[in-house]
Amino acid sequence: MIPFKGKFSGIRQYMKGKPHPWGFKVWARTGISGILCDFDVYQGSVQEEKELKKQGRGSFDFRVEQTHNICAVRWYDNRAVTLLSTFDGPQPVDKITRWDKSAKHYVEVSRPSIVKTYNRFMGGIDLLDSFTAKYKFHIRSMRWYLTILWHTIILGVVNAWLQYKRDCKTLQIPEKEVMNRRHFQAQLATSLIQTNTMKRGRPSMDESRAPRAAMARSAPPPDVRRDNVGHLPMKVEKRGRCVHCKDGYTTTACIECDVRLCFNDHNNCFHQFHT
Ligand SMILES: [Zn+2]
Ligand SMILES: [Zn+2]
């Protein structure tokens, strides 16, 4: 659900009991880790819930789409749930125990196989929702399509971060070196803004003008460092620590990165830093 209370209402939905009942409903398919595989904006659908309700709890109906072999199952528990799958269907049906509020005792309810599979993996969607909710953008009175666009961008960022964490795990990178979501997003933004661009207002070789390197604590992200655009050396007045080897002192700096880097008879940190 993308929270939205604006004027446009063609595809806006109301969902009772949700923290943000008004908004755009989005179908999303995720893995158990919350990585998004596919999504679509909900545009409304037909209802046959009443039919199933008559047949009682545990009743279900299904259709198979022959061309792509997709199975749709609508199952009635205390309300109708519709599930789609390319590999699962209604069979085998097992029994689950549910509390019957009106009769005040436990009852056995039939559960199609697809529902069982869904329950096993549904955590992914909740995980993704919690990630996107945590870093919500706050923009008021936005056009409805911008709301969807921004949400899509956030999804992209969350997905990239989850993928990044997965890669770090595969590469056995120590946990404390793995960026958290905030850091990752900041670095991503820096990369998108600075990669393949040259700094405006190029510092002159004027010795009196120290680069911001004098204060720089962090080097630009690898995407910027390795973009081969505008990384030229300059001399600065004040000697300072090299950001690459961390123990050399130098007056050589990169104009683009605003950091000091050794370039002497023994070390070429300038080269290593940029490759
Ligand atoms: Zn160095
Ligand atoms: Zn540089």
TrEMBL record:
It comes from the Eukaryota. It comes from Synaphobranchus kaupii (Kaup's arrowtooth eel). InterPro entries: PGBD. The keyword Transmembrane helix applies. Residues 53-161 form the PiggyBac transposable element-derived protein domain. The chain crosses the membrane at residues 144-162. Keywords: Membrane, Transmembrane, Transmembrane helix. The keyword Transmembrane helix applies. This is PiggyBac transposable element-derived protein domain-containing protein. Residues 198-228 are annotated as: Disordered.
